[in-house]
Amino acid sequence: MSRAEEAARRAELAAASDRAESVKAQVLIDAFLVDVAAAGIAPEPLRANLYDGHTVKTDKRGWYLRKNRSVAIGADGGYYILTVPGGLKERLRGVRLRPTPPPLIVGKGGRDGETGDLTEFLARRLAQG
């Protein structure tokens, strides 16, 4: 097997692992949606941070998971990273968020220090009411 084939195989295995992780994480998110509905915790309008530091409105409602409001669960069950590119147009009109595959570890690979199991973040948000 050539080096290129080995690299492609490793990438394929990593992608499969990420997909399996996202499926497990989505199950946790779906349970969270049931729990917040049962607790009567309404979603709020989500805001995103542009790379230049400005905060802008989005087209989604949901619940923030991190203290710095950089990650949220949408009312639609999507997992949203709330740091996005943009400029003046986005500051005026807002941004349309696209869900990303949810991880089991929030903040994995990040450098701001607030990382942990998705279950912990969901439980903490539910407890906040």
**What form results from the Cα inertia axes?**
globular
Distance separating the two termini: 55 Å
Instruction: Tell me the domain tally.
Output: 1
What Rg, in angstroms, do the CA atoms define?
17 Å
Largest sheet: 5 strands, mixed
Uncertain regions spanning at least 5 consecutive residues: none
User: Which structural category do the helix and sheet elements fall into?
Assistant: alpha+beta
- How are helices and strands ordered from N to C? HEEEEEHEEH
| Helix share bin | 40-55%
Helical run tally: 3
Number of strands: 7
- How is the largest sheet built, in terms of strand order? 4-3-2-1-5
Strand content: 15-25%
Q: Round the mean pLDDT to the nearest integer and report it.
A: 92
Question: Can you describe this structure?
Answer:
With about 130 residues, the chain is an alpha+beta fold. The chain has one domain. It has helices at about 5-40, 90-95, 120-129, and strands spanning about 45-50, 55-65, 70-75, 80, 85, 105, 115. Strands 4-3-2-1-5 form a 5-stranded mixed beta sheet. Strands 6-7 form a two-stranded antiparallel sheet. A hairpin with a 6-residue loop joins β2 and β3 (about 70-75). α1 (about 5-40) runs parallel beside α3 (about 120-129). The radius of gyration is 17 Å and the shape is globular. The N and C termini lie far apart (about 55 Å).
